[in-house]
Structure formats: structure tokens, C-alpha cells
Amino acid sequence: MDTSVVDFYRHAPDYDAEYADLTADIAWSKRLCRMYARGGHVLEMACGTGRITLPIAWQAMQLGYWVTGVDLSPDMLSRASAKVAAEDPSLQSQLQLIEGDMRTVNAGIERYNLVLVPFHSFAHLLTTHDQRAALHNCHNHLQVGGHFVADVFLPDPAKLAHGLTRHAPIIEREAQLADGYNLVRSYTTRYHPATQLLEVTYFYNFYDAIGRLIANRCYRSQTTMRMIFPAEWELLLADAGFTIIDRWSDYDGTPFGTGHGMKMLFLCQRT
Ligand SMILES: C[S@@+](CC[C@H](N)C(=O)[O-])C[C@H]1O[C@@H](n2cnc3c(N)ncnc32)[C@H](O)[C@@H]1O
């Protein structure tokens, strides 16, 4: 078990509040399921709290496909299960959740029409060895002709350069929580060009309605992400046996290399 990832994702309810306004990748994932999964099976690796898994499972109830979500973090996964139980237990007929590692899990080899790795989860794989293991495992889970897409970010040179020097935390995200507190998340980075590793320290500060800091609610959390550059991503995908059939830079289908999107959304096929 990767304890650093598990530790980083231990505040699962805060995660959902932080990303409550992120809906573009949900719509994109639903579109992919409509196009490539009808009547078949979808595997979401690193499904987390089910932020995307539940909406695609709701759609599955209408369109007739089945969804499997895999995640390493017991905290994230139990939040996903709790949401399924609270929203509509009948979703369980369309959805199974498995605690596992995308590098090694066996959720049914060659069973799937579509495998997704959403929202930068792939960046938690810190070595080429781990990246290759995960991609080969995703490939093995697909039927011949099945599709694969990972939401991988295009490294931003300005942000990486910022991480070469020490700096004060940058405020990145604000959110309102169910308990009435306001969350302000800031971060610092440290970039290691030789290993392409970006260490990120997040500071979670909580304030009440009149702006008083709730000191005993605040915490600090650290993670490391491996940067992947475009030619490297192409090589990794080819190494796993994938054929790239389309490339987008954003969820709206902007062709890769145009527009302002900072993503490498490469639609792949097991041929
Ligand atoms: C940024 S969150 C994304 C969660 C969810 N897919 C979403 O879009 O909200 C990254 C997730 O990757 C999971 N993760 C990281 N490494 C993993 C691995 N090797 N195998 C399975 N899950 C992993 C974490 O536990 C976490 O839930």
C-alpha cells in the first residue's frame, strides 16, 4: 500500500467540497461513456470519492452499461460508498467499487470497453516503472477495440520554474463547507528537474462566517507528482500497446497543441 497517497487523501469530505465546482470533466467523462461504453463496461481507475463515478453510473442506469471504480485510498472509497448508499442504493446494480492499486489490481481482465483515469491521478505514479505498470494494467483490462483515456496535465513551465525557488504560499482555491466553515487552500511547490518530481505542500485553513481562523481545524498536507511531457506520454502509451486515435488539450475537444488548455487528453485504443 502506498502510504503517502493514502495519507494525502485522508480528508475525503474536504476533497469533495474543494472540487464541488469542477463539473467540466464530469460532462466529458459522461460523453466518453455515451460514445464508447453503451451496453458494456467502464473501468475508472483512481475513482476517489466517486465525484465522476457516480454521475457516470447514474447515466449508466439509463444507457445500460456497468461501472467499476478502483481506488487505493480507503478514506476516498468509503466516502464514495457512503454517497452511493445515501443517493440511491439501486445504483449498486450498476456500480461496483474496489479497493486496489491501478498498477496491480485485477478488476476483470479484457472485460472493459472503456478505461478512464481522470483528474491527474496518474501523476501520483512517481517512476517510469510504476507508470508502465499502470498503463499495461489498464491495457490488459480492455477488450480488443476498447478505448482508454487518462486526464494528464501538460506541465506548465512557469509553474515548474516557480518551484525552483522558495516562495510564500499561493492561494489556489476557496470553498464553502457543509459545516459552515470556509476553506482557503494555498500551496508551495518544489520542483526537481532531474527526476521531474514536483513536491507540493498544501495548507488548508478554515474560517468561520465572520472570518475567524478555526485553528484546530487547519492542517497541512504534502504530495509529490511526476511531470510527464508530451513526447514521453506518447512513448509510454505506445509501450503499453495503445494506438493514439485523437488528442485534445481540454475537455471541450480543443485539438491538442491549440487553445489554452493545459492537458494531454489522448484518446487511445487497444488494437
Ligand atoms: C485527484 S484524486 C481523483 C479522484 C477522482 N477520480 C476525481 O476525479 O475526483 C486522485 C485519486 O487517485 C488515487 N490514487 C493514487 N494512486 C493510486 C493508485 N496507484 N491506484 C489507485 N488509486 C490511486 C487517490 O487515492 C485519489 O483518490
Question: How would you explain this protein's 3D organization?
Answer:
The protein has 271 residues and is an alpha/beta fold. It has two domains: 195 residues, Vaccinia Virus protein VP39 (Rossmann fold, 3-Layer(aba) Sandwich), CATH 3.40.50; 70 residues, S-adenosyl-L-methionine-dependent methyltransferases (N-terminal domain of TfIIb). Helices cover 30% and strands 31% of the residues. The protein has eight helices and twelve strands. Helix 6 links the parallel strand 4 and strand 5. Helix 3 runs parallel beside helix 4. The longest helix is centred in the N-terminal third of the chain and has 14 residues. The radius of gyration is 19 Å and the shape is globular. The two termini are 32 Å apart. The structure holds S-adenosylmethionine.
- Name the overall outline: globular
Distance linking N and C termini: 32 Å
Q: Identify the CATH class of the largest domain.
A: Alpha Beta
Question: Ions, cofactors, ligands: which are bound?
Answer: S-adenosylmethionine
Q: Which residue ranges are poorly predicted, with pLDDT under 50 across at least 5 consecutive positions?
A: none
Mean pLDDT: 94
| Helical run tally | 8
User: In what range is the share of β-strand residues?
Assistant: 25-35%
Task: Write out the CATH superfamily name of the largest domain.
Answer: Vaccinia Virus protein VP39
Helix content: 25-40%
Stated plainly, the CATH topology of the largest domain is called Rossmann fold
CATH architecture of the largest domain: 3-Layer(aba) Sandwich
What is the secondary structure topology, with strand pairs?
Elements: H1 3-8, H2 12-18, H3 24-36, E1 41-45, H4 53-63, E2 66-71, H5 74-87, E3 95-99, E4 112-117, H6 128-141, E5 142-150, E6 152-153, H7 157-162, E7 170-176, E8 182-192, E9 197-207, E10 219-226, H8 230-239, E11 242-248, E12 263-270
Parallel strand pairs: 1-2, 1-4, 2-3, 4-5
Antiparallel strand pairs: 5-12, 6-12, 7-8, 8-9, 9-10, 11-12
Bound molecules: S-adenosylmethionine (SAM).
